[in-house]
Amino acid sequence: MARTRGGWTGGRLTARSLLNPKQVATAVFHPSWIPPSLDPSIERLKRIRVIGGAVASIGVYTLFEGGFDVTQLMENALTASAVLLFITPLVVGAMLFLWRRTGTVRQLRGPLLNALKLLLLFVGCVAALVVLVTTVNATGNALVIIVGGMTMLWMLGFVVWGAVRVSGNFFGTAAVHRCLPALLATVTSWLMAVPDLVTGDLHGLSLTLGVVFVLGAPVTVTVIALVEMGRLKRRYGIRLKAHPATLPPVPGHRPPAPGHVPPVPGHFPPTGLPHVPPQGAPFGHPYPTAGSGNPYAPGPHHPHTPPPPPYAPQPNGRRHP
Fold this sequence. Notes:
It contains eight helices and no strands. The chain has helices at 21-29, 40-58, 61-66, 70-99, 109-138, 142-169, 180-199, 207-236.
């Protein structure tokens, strides 16, 4: 689970890809050190969980209250980032406290630092986008509006797609423990929804619509997260309460046994029981088969011609002994 070769982006960024905010966001917010998904079905569950998390973070009520407002959207994103900046280290710290009986924090220091860097990077990008939007809206300079507007559009695509990526891997915490992204998504979605219910702030929606839209996202995220963690436990033996160092190896990678010598390419080891020489005659059968006839019989002759006597004289006049 350490950082792989190729740096943060794994060499996926080129000069041409810098013009595409989606490619840049994928390389930056889904680094090469994040482990791949174990199962396609779990990956599909993560995508559904991302949708529910986005609903919980942005809020469907924004569209119903007063139409689509970029400023309100940025404020919600900044609020969600502040919540993530606070709740993610808190939840991870609680899990480290739970894992202390079977492992140490030092074993997870590398993945934890990488996840913290990714969290700070995403929050910083969201804050920079909010500042850029506020500056462009407040200025009256045409050049600033044109250049800032183009930059704002690129940054908007970059941050939105980055939010999709970090919602799936939840700041690379899967490199620490496979169950952490599902746990963090559940806790974050509830923290975004519960204050609205406690204060009764349904943002202009009726009680029924408010409860449905406020609680719909966290309930959906929770159900999907439970299914995801249950599948990890049943199929791969990965439990949330177990320290990552005690988890079974990743499927598809089996460490070699002690004293195992890898086979040489092109060499086939002998088969059969040990210390038994190869069976069969390497230089052919020492005796002729039943269908080969008498080895001392005379050569072929016509069937109506009597065979020559066995001791007939030779062509040179000599007789057989």
